[in-house]
């Protein structure tokens, strides 16, 4: 441990945080446990702490003793912040696909002949939803983002892409073989004319929210992310790392890795309920938003275009985003990133790569 007066290191705090997070995350109103800088009176102190996120901060005298967050745990200071976390797919009632989708003008083009990362996608099947997940019960269509090109570790050689479980599967009624359309039905995609692949496998675990779509031979594909360029491999996220992502809704956004220790509880609805994911990457936007609804499934890359995470959720205002560590995603889904130059080129997409 650090000496008196010296701030503790993250690696010293991590075992304490992991030991107590199960107790903290189940307390009423708690949605996250992380390691971050303690803020007092609105000012950063320069001291790392166990940060507990709650939907609403209440005065201590309004909380039962068992729900109070102690000021320190095993010598580690704590901090309580007010945040709310949501998944970031886009959802609209079936039949309203021609309405304004909410995508920014700088977002990746919704219709593209060649499949690359950063494009709009979604399932062909309508999704039956009911309150409180949506205002009115009925059939809905959903949209997310294609992450990156991957291939089966088993050696089949099939071309695939990675995205989120809640983008491709959505609920507990999914099946292997479900057809996926690019662009999403919300963005004008038609089934079966614009089908680009079928659901091959998926995982929703304590660390990964992922799915694999096997591509059809009808649509060409390229190992690239629209507006960013070819994927150069994978890397481990590190605190302070500059990152970017290309999402269906917000387009190209940049940010900074603030933590690799985030534990958060998110409501998956649709019969799946609240799920807790651990050891997630927390990214703070350089601008107003890092992500928004419809960006789920995008990959997050570092300055060298190496994939570090799979984006899946964020704060309600989009200022903070969360991603699964890419190594965990690839392991659980039994795939590897494609890094070889593609056989087919996509003029107007990969050529517009940014440095």
TrEMBL record:
<comment type="similarity">
    <text>Belongs to the peptidase S1 family.</text>
</comment>
<keyword id="KW-1015">Disulfide bond</keyword>
<dbReference type="InterPro" id="IPR001316">
    <property type="entry name" value="Pept_S1A_streptogrisin"/>
</dbReference>
<keyword id="KW-0720">Serine protease</keyword>
<dbReference type="InterPro" id="IPR009003">
    <property type="entry name" value="Peptidase_S1_PA"/>
</dbReference>
<protein>
    <submittedName>
        <fullName>Uncharacterized protein</fullName>
    </submittedName>
</protein>
<keyword id="KW-0378">Hydrolase</keyword>
<dbReference type="InterPro" id="IPR043504">
    <property type="entry name" value="Peptidase_S1_PA_chymotrypsin"/>
</dbReference>
<keyword id="KW-0645">Protease</keyword>
